[in-house]
Design a protein that fits this description.
This protein has 169 residues and is mostly helical. The protein has 4 helices and 2 strands.
Length: 169
């Protein structure tokens, strides 16, 4: 008894690569707006531009964007100290002892050099992510054959997270 098996024709590696590139483009167009948001707000958070401290009150938008990045809520933090008041100056509740020393990673006269270098590296990585994502968007929108679908995916990637963020505030 002989059994006949039908052999499926092998898919050429070039076709597989083309399919992977197409999927990569679709996913990239969909998530690019969120990647850009997280990279930019992450850079701002490295330097605490979203947090109040003595002599600095963040613009309300930066405060909201920082909160959205960290807590997934697009609203200012109403549970912390009043705007412009540093959390350490909030009062006796949890106030550190004046002789307790600087926070971890900071020397008496500023951050340790390793902290400054790490911030610089993380800023460069965030900036690289922004540039790389923008280049990917440019490449995806340059493809005339797929421009319509890519634009729709990009718009969905903008509208859906923005609408959900608006519902959290």
């Amino acid at each position: 008894m002989t059994t006949a098996t039908t052999a499926r024709p092998a898919v050429h590696p070039t076709v597989i690569l083309m399919r992977i590139r197409t999927l990569h483009t679709w996913l990239g167009m969909l998530i690019a707006p969120t990647v850009l948001f997280m990279a930019v707000t992450g850079i701002l958070q490295i330097y605490n531009f979203h947090e109040a401290r003595p002599g600095y009150t963040p613009p309300p938008l930066l405060e909201k964007l920082g909160r959205l990045h960290k807590d997934q809520v697009f609203a200012p933090d109403h549970h912390g100290p009043p705007p412009g008041l540093h959390p350490l100056a909030a009062g006796p509740k949890g106030a550190p002892d004046a002789d307790a020393g600087p926070p971890p990673g900071e020397a008496r006269h500023g951050p340790k050099p390793a902290v400054a270098w790490l911030k610089a590296v993380l800023t460069a990585v965030g900036a690289g992510l922004v540039v790389s994502t923008l280049l990917g968007l440019w490449m995806g929108l340059r493809d005339r054959a797929a421009r319509g679908l890519n634009l729709v995916l990009l718009l969905v990637g903008i509208v859906v997270p923005a609408a959900l963020a608006a519902m959290t505030g």
